[in-house]
Amino acid sequence: MNAVLYPVCACIAWISLAFKLAGRGRGPAAVAVALFYLFMGLTFTISDPRVWGLLGEVSGVPNLALLLSQGSVMGVAASQLAALTYWELPAEVARPKVRNQVYAFSAVFVAMAALFVLADLETEDTTTAVIRYAGNWRYALYLLLYVTAFAIAQCFLVARCLRYARAVEGRWLGRGLRLAAVGAVGGLAYVLARYADIAAAPLGLDPAAWEPVARLGAGLGAILALVGWSLPGWGPQVSALRDWVRDVRAYRALHPLWAALCRANPDLALDPGAGRTALRDVDFRLHRRVVEIRDGRRWLRAPAAPPDLTADERAAAEAAAIAAALRGGDRLAPPPHAEPHTPSDDETRWLARVSRAYAALER
């Protein structure tokens, strides 16, 4: 599992870091988020069995990757808390708080390094070192310190992400923070598995039995956290693409009704030669098409559909009335000084429905 899930997590982290560095944000919160991606990338790159073994071979220190990867996890937690602190508080208030957080996590890492040296993990193990040495009491102390610090950080992250998500106005930022909170819950599943590792030796249990829980909690929790923290950056582009697709479809759906009205009165259209589909300046073209259809409906003596019908029945009735007015040539010129009009989404959807009903009549 490490050889597949962990490289996926590492790739997501490094790609996210590249996009973050290429972006415009340069404040302390943006730096903290970039460090989050950096430490997440280091965590899962080092945890890859191939990199793990290479580090031990080059350094001559067996399982050095264990300390480095878990030290990077401390960086992951510290950078997330720092970003939240800078978002929630003025910079002059946030700065000393973040400094104290960094001191605390640094102290934990120094203590982890000391216990790692004392544990003397002589045999390199690129995949199961965490559970292999669960019976080593020095290593058990190391692991207890690590997972406790990580658990405290994850609990703070869950609470603060959810609290800040309720306070922010940005839709994508709120969604991202909630997703990051879910990722932190995955981290807590990893913590529970590691606490079970510590208790396994005294109880005579096999920690390998729940190792998949630890790896899935770490891997899936990391993916959710990465997606959550990056969501405010690329989420608006997703919304823009969705809106563009919606407008292209609406523009195309309006064409049959618009074309019929413009054939009867070419003066209605700013661009009588406009086609069925538009890919550029879609919002402006859609706006014009709705306004021109609205002007065309005012130009015709087409009675309104009865209000007691269903939406489809009303659309069909209005389309039939427009078709009859076009065939009969009974028209009424619009008032000379029409009020400016900005089409609403509801009006656009309604006219698209009428246009589809009109196209069905003309088949």
Automatic annotation (TrEMBL):
Biased composition (Basic and acidic residues): 338-349
InterPro entries found in the cross-reference section: DUF6545, MAB_1171c-like
Domain DUF6545: 244-359
UniProt region (Disordered), positions on chain: 328-349
Pfam family, one: DUF6545
The keyword Thylakoid is annotated on this UniProt entry: no
Bilayer-crossing regions: 5-22, 29-47, 67-89, 101-119, 139-159, 179-196, 216-234
Alphabetic keyword roster: Membrane, Transmembrane, Transmembrane helix
Protein name: MAB_1171c family putative transporter
Organism this protein belongs to: Actinokineospora guangxiensis
